[in-house]
Amino acid sequence: MNTSYDILIVGAGHAGANAAIALRQQKFEGTIGLMGNEKYPPYERPPLSKEYLAGDKPFERIMLRPESFWSERKIDLLTGCRVSKVDPMDKKVTLSTDDEVRFGKLIWATGGSPRMLDCPGSQARNIHGVRSRADVDKIMAALPTTEKVVVVGGGYIGLEAAAVLTKLGKKVTILETMDRVLSRVAGKTLSRFYEEEHRQQGVSVELEAMVDAFETNEDGMAIAAKLTDGRKFAAEMFIIGIGIIPETGPLVAAGAAAGNGVDVDQHCRTSLEDIYAIGDCAAHSNRFADGAHIRLESVQNANDQAKVVALDIMGEDCEYDSVPWFWSNQFDLKLQTVGLSTGHDHYIVRGDPANRTFSIVYLKDGKVIALDCVNATKDYVQGRKLVEAGLTLDIEQLANTSIPIKEVERA
Ligand code: FAD
Questions:
Q1: What is the CATH number of domain 332-407?
Q2: What is the distance in A from the centroid of ligand 1 to the CA of 273?
Q3: Percentage of the chain surpassing pLDDT 90?
Q4: FRET pair for 173, CA 20 to 30 Å: which of 227, 353, 369, 401?
Q5: Which ligand 1 atom is at minimum distance from the Cα of 14?
Q6: C-alpha distances in angstroms, 304 versus 133, 265, 267, 278, 387?
Q7: 4-113+245-313 is classed in which CATH architecture?
């Protein structure tokens, strides 16, 4: 490890790794340190709740680049290093080992840690988050002795984990606090569709189910999740999928403006000079959310912000203004979503959910703001343009699946 880098990137996940790649693509010739606290080279996180958990893809196939890539590009990959302090005046970071590393510019790309429950029994060893390879390796190691799994949280990660574990023959129960799954990210129609799908595949979906304790045995293992209404769900494994807490501590302590994540401008600059923040930990004003200051937790956002930072460092004029997109795989359903549906005042269902191929088009003030497309890639690809342009279209035509979206757009 050098004691100084022109660019120091803290966090070697999607955003950090892609920032290093983008800098070299932009012909940045200075020194780059890519520092992360995990012991593995940068890898894709989405397969953790999909093909990796299912055992269908080994770790080598989810690495973002082959291990030799980093040294070939003269990027110093520094694994197993946790930054505990940032000094923006002296331009240096301190690691948990007390080592210090100086920087010319710092890119903070630390993502988030899984939000866990804080209630009696919640420290038990068989209660898992799903954020890192280490988390999922622990889950996989315990599977041979697990019959029943309780998944707390009906968001994308909880649903994906439930789908994989069901396919692996486990008896899975999802406990969701709200009155529908995916309530934070999708409209009711999509929620009901996924609830039904999971139930048909054998998953038990319990709504308005709030966990307030875990019962534990004398070995300190959780044996049941207890709800506020007194119901109990026994299992050998508990998975918590209730969101993340952005990893911003050292930067906030250094004085960076922050709320729900580190605040950044359209160039991903923080309020501290020569310090950027990107990916899941960065809150930015997003045109597709009516300018609201939001954090996006997606590969799209991590990759696109990484490119913006690299261009900004190279002195190019570039602002972050990408249309948000996301995907989720559950059973044989491929969901692709574009735009942000929050705040929609109307929606149209294109196609019949019973056929397992349909799209939901969300509108606000007559304009298309988002689409959720289930096994409907064509709609997703063509709908993207509608969201980007914020077009007002004929609603009846939009609902008619015999008319491709691009024809509706032309009309
Ligand atoms: P991360 O990829 O989390 O990387 C941050 C890195 O920084 C981590 O390695 C962390 O350990 C490290 N770090 C944190 N603090 C420090 C510190 N102080 N010092 C040093 N290192 C530190 N998105 C999609 O678009 N589609 C999907 O289908 C999808 N599925 C997902 C499934 C799962 C199970 C998970 C967990 C996420 C999924 N996501 C998906 C979200 C996507 O993976 C994230 O949005 C993306 O990883 C964000 O990239 P990031 O670089 O900001 O954070």
A1: 3.30.390.30
A2: 25
A3: 92
A4: 353
A5: 51
A6: 23, 14, 11, 9, 17
A7: 3-Layer(bba) Sandwich (3.50)
